[in-house]
Amino acid sequence: MSRLVVVGGDAAGMTAAATARRRDRNLEIVAFERSAHTSYSACGLPYFISGLVADAADLIARSPAEHRALGVPVQTRHEVIAIDVEAKRVRVRDLDTADERDEPFDVLVIGTGATPVRPELPGAQAAGVFGIQTIEDGIALHDWIEREHPRQAVVVGGGYIGLEMAEAMKHLDVDVTLIERHDQPMGTLDPDMGELVADALRGIGISLRLGTDVSSFATRPDGRVRAVVTAEGEIPADVVVLGLGVRPNVELARHAGITIGDRGGIRVDGAMRTSAADVYAAGDCVESWHRLSGRHVVVALGTHANKQGRVVGINVTGGEASFPGVIGTAVTKVCAYEVARTGLGEREAADAGFDAVAVRVDSTTRAGYYPGSTPITVKMVAERGTGRLLGAQIIGQEGAAKRIDVAATAIWNEMRAADVAMLDLAYAPPYSPVWDPVLVGARKVAELV
Amino acid sequence: MSRLVVVGGDAAGMTAAATARRRDRNLEIVAFERSAHTSYSACGLPYFISGLVADAADLIARSPAEHRALGVPVQTRHEVIAIDVEAKRVRVRDLDTADERDEPFDVLVIGTGATPVRPELPGAQAAGVFGIQTIEDGIALHDWIEREHPRQAVVVGGGYIGLEMAEAMKHLDVDVTLIERHDQPMGTLDPDMGELVADALRGIGISLRLGTDVSSFATRPDGRVRAVVTAEGEIPADVVVLGLGVRPNVELARHAGITIGDRGGIRVDGAMRTSAADVYAAGDCVESWHRLSGRHVVVALGTHANKQGRVVGINVTGGEASFPGVIGTAVTKVCAYEVARTGLGEREAADAGFDAVAVRVDSTTRAGYYPGSTPITVKMVAERGTGRLLGAQIIGQEGAAKRIDVAATAIWNEMRAADVAMLDLAYAPPYSPVWDPVLVGARKVAELV
């Protein structure tokens, strides 16, 4: 009988374990998680902070007890501190007793996740400065808000998590300033679309400081954060949220001699195998293959983590599954605004060696005459010559963002923009103009290739 | 210089004319339309009836005057009564003066649209019994409602238009009974999904009479409708809406010797050419090719009409465009419920010669913990052996229906269900669970093939 050890209790690791258990009732499984929690939605933390989700427990898809009941014994408050890939054993520390022991494995799954980037700046560790990645981070920020009633929040970083946290603070009627070192929020969008996002953010009362670097965090005598310091002066803040992205947790793997990729994640193949025999990895700690650029990328997203975990669970139980890579699809919501992207932007397409053309179209989410129809802007990027659709970006209001999935599916299938324009998409006035905005974008960009 | 004559002022014909005009400023164009209106959204009529759209004029995308200003001279209240494909001329009657004249063409476009099916039953022509296809139909019904204040409506036919008209009547606080001769509403869905639609309709207070044939319409002494008569008795009605679908208007083409297909529409090739040289047809009067079944179908949908008109406009001006066919995508809304389908249902797949398997999954439109998350049911049909996705059906509430477009795009590209399950779709808690319902459906059906 084989023994599967899982390092990390997040979505990837626990999905791997649960999938393996479903496929093989006899496999011995043990999972180690250093926190007290398993399988929660980090993506849901902003909505717990805003109060839209009342209880952090609501974000937990499956508790340790539920995992155990389903045949996945998970030991929480247990940290794997070393992996010996030759001897096939891990060193585990019980965080409550500080006892350490070795645990053998036949197959190992690394799902160590990622950690929020903290700038190495004076005051970055001050009380009132929060990263948001784990449920503990979320609970800590939530408690701070309950206790301190902050009135001025600064969010550092204008990416997805930054925008979502800015929305959360607006929900709580806290003044929000968003600081972004680049000239636009949402650096994964092209600048013209980023500008529309900036306009939307200003429109909902979020102060933007673009092209601005944080130099330090000023503190009060009691050690709590007082302001964020930039070259243009201080921005008062009684709470600071860092939305600077996350870094894969790879030190454990690196020390075990497992290959780390040039983007800083654990390098895996399509089957999610690492460079070490019988060692798999999945989730926020790995690099994924980008199907368009052909490069490795680090994308911390629950949907990838779940798929990758499932692929591992199949492969460690004699099946054959492959994670087919990503195309950079992402979506976020900021108050009434929906922002989404997939594939390559203009700049990314050029970087990846494509001769790309792009077009931007304005349309509406529903038939113009139907109540609730709102503006939507769609940008499409295609390859000159082949006419292949390379990317799409969308900004709009209700019903706008999920349209990105059509572009994602089309790009995944390497469709020509001209063919995308003729797709048989669902039309009825409550859902779409007679030409869906995605069709219009594809049609227009097809005219340029 | 060439002369283009367009028969019919609906979306297909006028899109053809407008596209041709944009591509060729010198082309002589003349369009004839027997009504006073052009380019309106018949799909929007239910929302004019319900009052959601205040003015019938809002449904008009481009009026005759606007067409003329853009270089497309359209003569309204002019009916083409004969086509001579050999002599290349049409016979036109001025409906106001009854004058007739011949008009020569080099290229002809037939866009004669469709007419609602009226059952040949006693009383079917009674005052208060309405079909809904043209804007005149809509205005007539609207006026009737304003004048008569009906309290009991019967909708005959449980297809898209029937459901939308039932919703419209509910909006007006009129009691609604829906009569459908088959055992389920939405005959384009599989019975198990049709049952869910039936439950939803009952839940919003619409009385259903399924498996029920109308035998006649009973009238009052003044000739107005009083009740709908069935084998199970009379259903009182002071207004009746026929939602029995439409029939292509092909008599003009048929008399000209142009080939009519076995489904009753004008037969065209991919370039939208009819059997007669230099005669094209587009819109609700033609048959389309179904990419999955390989059969011809008649689908009256504005989105097809617009695409087909554009293809014609390109082809008659020296370009090369092709309408690539349909896969049966459709969507409708009934109060809070959204219903959509694409590809082949179980029965249709069997009819088309596929060995099909199917699965139904229940999920939510957003992350379960996110406010506004509502149930969604997704059915997926795939081909045994190849694993190819053949069809999808969706029932849910806000945010459910347009997900059908992902399935449509996947089916269009002949994707395997297992590959659909790994698509990089947009995930964030306000938009989707971590596994989008479409991914779950694809994953589950992939396990059966």
In percent, how much strand structure appears in the residues of chain A? 25-35%
Whole-number average pLDDT of chain A?
96
**Whole-number tally of structural domains of chain A:** 3
Strand order of the largest sheet of chain A: 3-2-1-7-18
Task: Round the Cα radius of gyration of chain A to an integer and report it.
Answer: 23 Å
Q: Structural class of the secondary structure composition of chain A? A: alpha/beta
* Overall outline of chain A: globular
CATH class category of the largest domain in chain A: Alpha Beta
Chain oligomer state? homodimer
Question: How large is the count of helical segments of chain A?
Answer: 12
Unreliable runs of chain A? none
Keywords:
homodimer, 449 residues, alpha/beta, FAD/NAD(P)-binding domain, Enolase-like, domain 1, 3 domains, 5-stranded parallel beta sheet, 25 strands, 28% strand, globular
What does this protein look like?
The structure is a homodimer of 449-residue chains. Chain A has 449 residues and is of the alpha/beta class. Chain A has three domains: 3-114 and 246-315, FAD/NAD(P)-binding domain, CATH 3.50.50; 118-242, FAD/NAD(P)-binding domain, CATH 3.50.50; 339-446, Enolase-like, domain 1, CATH 3.30.390. In chain A, 25% of the residues lie in helices and 28% in strands. Chain A contains twelve helices and 25 strands. In chain A, the strands form seven sheets. A five-stranded parallel β-sheet of chain A has the order 3-2-1-7-18. Chain A has a five-stranded parallel β-sheet with strand order 9-16-10-11-12, covered by helices on one side. In chain A, helix 1 (11-23) packs parallel to helix 8 (302-315). The longest helix of chain A is centred in the first third of the chain and has 14 residues, at 135-148. The radius of gyration of chain A is 23 Å and the shape is globular. The relative contact order of chain A is 0.12. The model of chain A has no long low-confidence stretch (mean pLDDT 96). The interface between A and B is large, with 65 and 65 residues.
